[in-house]
Amino acid sequence: MSPLLTTRTEGRVLVVEMARPQEGNALNRELQTELAGAWRQLEADEELLAGVLHGSGGVFSVGHDVKELASGSGDQADPTPADGLFPHSLSKPVIAAVEGACFGLGFELAMACDLRVAGEDARFGFPDTNLYVSYRLASALLPRLTNLGASLDLLLTGNPMGASRLEQLRLVNRVTPAGQALIAAMDLAQDMVEHFGSAMAFRKEQIWQFSGLPLPTALSLARASYNGG
Amino acid sequence: MAEIGYLVEDRVAIISLEAPDRGNAFTPAMRGELNQVFERYRVDEDAWVAVICAEGPDFCTGSEAVPALSHGEQRDRARYWAGGRLDTIKPTIAAVQGVCRGEGLALALGCDLRLAGESVAFQAGLDSLGSGPNVEAVWLVNLVGLSVALDLLWTRRTVDAAQAARLGLINRLVSIDETPAEAQPEERPAEGRLPVRPLGQSIVTTDGSARSGGIKLARELLQYAPVTRSFQKETAYRSIGVPFHYAQTLEVGPNPYASEDRIEGTRAFVENRRPVWHNR
Amino acid sequence: MQQSDIQQAGIQQSGEVLLREQDGDILVATMNRPERMNALDDNLTNALNEAWLDFRDAPDLKVMIITGAGDRAFCSGVDLRRNDERARDLGAQTAQAILDADRSRGVRLSFNGNNFGLWKPVIAAINGWCLAAGCEMAMACDLRIMEEHAQMGLPEVKRGMGAKQTTHKLYHLTNLNIGLEMAWTGDTLTAQRAYDLGLVTEVAPKSESVARAKELARRICRFPSGYLEYHKLRVFQSLGLPLDYGMSIDQRFPPQESEDYRTGLERSLSQGIPGGPGQHLD
After folding, report:
1. Of C76, C82, C135, C159, which to mutate for an interface test with B (greatest number of B Cβ within 10 Å)?
2. For chain A, N or C: smaller number of CB within 10 Å?
3. pTM
4. Dihedral of CA B58/B59/B63/B64: which sign?
5. What is d(CA C56, CA B205) in angstroms, rounded to the nearest whole number?
6. Integer-rounded Cα radius of gyration of chain B
7. B140 three-class SS
8. Residue C4: is its pLDDT beyond 80?
9. pLDDT tens digits, C47-90
């Protein structure tokens, strides 16, 4: 097992930990690739039904590994996220448990999870005013999680927001006392897998798809999945 | 026709679920009735705003289990899930109390506005649907955003009145006015310009029921221009899922700028009086 | 009206009805008809149009702030007395014909519809009543700061009009429920409610919205213009599209291909990464 990422199984939940606390869990190319691998494992293993993602050392992730971008070559100097880094395209739910900094690419990673549980001291945003990269996922997804004004606020001012404000703005689902996010996220995940029992039952792909479809189209898709009864 | 009521009073259509003995759970027959009543409202020129409410402590607990539905019954069931939102350009207000889940939730979320009494308990857990259509999810994603929608659908938490207001799931709370009737100030006479009020204040009625709150909100809407309402409803819904800069060029619904009511509305403002609307 | 006429009218009047002040990279435009609650007449509209264009094209300006003179109103909308006179003269159908003709000529510059490619950030400093077309203007800004006594609303439904430039985006700005209620009742948002809904970034004490907006603008100015325009454009381009498509749009001039990118990385390394070990979270 690589030292950058650890995974363990608890019941039917895959717990994924970013383990570069010395670097604020900065997402270098290697960690991105390992995360993509963890998501493939979650998707492929039929015994697993949900994932929980967190960072070690009281930090979720500070985002891009700027050191690597500045000194790397080829892929390592490319700020484009690695293929498969974002778990929104899986059929199984992933919950982000966020403490401390959740910035830049790390914030995008949390956004691409289905639910976010945050310790009250967690901070979210794009505060590195010297890092000029393209936040493609955030630009499209933030307005669907919160609203237009809050999205532009986060992206254009770089000012981070706290967990309670983002709960009010609907991006954070639960706020816990500092240090308790992982425990609360595990409780949620265990409760969900007990009740749903199969990846199909979550209907995740369909629900994500409803965001950004015309209402008549979304409604007919919803009805098309209906098999009587 | 026994389990769905339809009554028009002063331009307000009151559509009520009247099977409180079984928590207003839907049966195929009741579903069919509701579709007919919606159609009646759609074409009823005397009804400008509809309130959808329910008798008994619970708005609707879901649906009665039936072994198998005929093709026609399935079609009925699928149809009303579009609810008031897309089938008519006139407003529909859901007035909800007690338990609201399953098909009842789909009905309430399918209305344009929602208000709720203190007792409300929304249950949006996806598991209550079984293999049913996922219409609640369409409404939820559009009402409260993707993140909260997934939360409500997956974690099966019950949402009470205060939470529903905070999440934007409902527009107003209804509460009871405990001032004795004789101490009530008389209704302000309808003169002068229309009042300016802060948005989203609780609705206070003498019995505090969701139904009375719904009727009060409906009467409030009737003070305002019906052509504008229809235009705004169509525009709001038809803009969803449409590229932003294209959405603002949409021409849907009646055009208030070409209406007689617009001339009347502007003139009434200048003359410092209440407008009289003709819905044309 | 031709473009040159618009500009001419603006130049003649902008010293009076629209005040402009440049503060570094920031342009502050103040609607200056306080005796009419900063209502929009032709002069003010033309002066505003000229200001949006100037701001868009000025390489030394990064952020614009729009506000109203006095502490009563940001902007109370278009002058209804003038509208009433026109309606009496023309009747409903003819009034619509004029609107249609305007549109088909395609010359009308619309800030609310952003039909002229303004991708630099604009902040509304809402210093008082913000109603009807004034509210629509604030809704078309990217960020809003609202003074504690201010209220914003769309009273069009009380006059039989439409809030046509805003109804389609209420959904993105608030949510479907609240947006429709706002449009259908004409009820106003207090500053606190607007903050709770995420419609405004900050509630400011009375008379301090411009100072607070400048503070926010200075935060924005830390980024290069290219970065700001890229992301603002991306957000608006992807609204209303299926999510996967919205994320995968290929857009020219991504910030990582700019000249600023390399020097930014060096600066980032020497100044420390926000949130990193030993760093503050802000």
Report:
1. C159
2. N
3. 0.93
4. positive
5. 52
6. 19
7. helix
8. no
9. 999 999 999 999 999 999 999 999 999 999 987 777 667 666 76
Hey, what are B233's tokens?
């409803």
Helix (H, G, I), strand (E, B) or coil at C63: strand
Q: Which tokens hold the place of C19?
A: 């005040």
Fill in the amino acid letter for A138: A
Distance from CA of B211 to the nearest CA of C (A): 18
* Tokens describing residue B57: 């402590």
Whether C147 is catalytic: no
Contact at CB, A69 and C265, closer than 8 angstroms: yes
C79: tokens are: 């002058």
Order of all β-strands in the sheet with B99-101: B99-101, B121-123, B158-159
Contact at CB, A210 and B137, closer than 8 angstroms: yes
What DSSP state is assigned to residue B22?
A: G
Q: What is the pLDDT of residue C12?
A: 42
B252 has a chain A CB within 8 A of its CB? no
Q: Do A223 and B81 touch (CB under 8 A)?
A: yes
Q: Rounded to an integer, what distance in angstroms lies between the CA atom of residue B237 and that of residue B168? A: 17
Q: Give the H/E segment covering residue B7.
A: strand B4-9
Chain B, nearest residue to A204 by Cα: B150
Give the residue-averaged pLDDT of A39-59: 97
CA–CA distance, A23 with A65 (Å, rounded to integer): 8
Q: Does B176 touch chain A (CB under 8 A)?
A: no
Q: How far is CA B211 from the centre of its chain?
A: 11
Question: Is the CB of A93 inside 8 Å of chain B's CB atoms?
Answer: yes
Q: Touching check for C276 and chain A: CB below 8 Å? A: yes
Q: Is C249 on the interface with B (CB under 8 A)?
A: no
**C1: pLDDT strictly greater than 50:** no
Q: In the structure encoding, which two tokens stand for residue B73, read together?
A: 């019954």
Q: How far apart are CA B223 and CA B200, in angstroms?
A: 17
> What pLDDT score was predicted for residue B31?
85
Min Cα–Cα distance to chain A from C193, Å: 12
Please tell me the distance from the alpha carbon of residue B108 to that of residue B29, in angstroms, as a whole number.
19
pLDDT tens digits for C208-218?
Answer: 999 999 999 99
Which member of C50, C147, C156, C229 is catalytic?
A: C156
- A120 and C CB contact within 8 Å: no
| Identity of residue A20 | R
What one-letter code names the amino acid at C80? L
Helices (H) and strands (E) in chain A, counts: 10, 9
Q: Which residues of C touch B142 (CB under 8 A)?
A: 171, 176
Residue C181 catalytic? no
What does the CA dihedral B192, B195, B196, B200 come to, rounded to 10 degrees?
Answer: -170
Of A181, A104, B2, the closest CA to residue A173 belongs to: A181
Rg (Cα) of chain C, in Å, rounded?
Answer: 20
DSSP B95-130: EE-SEEEHHHHHHHHTSSEEEEETT-EEE--GGGGT
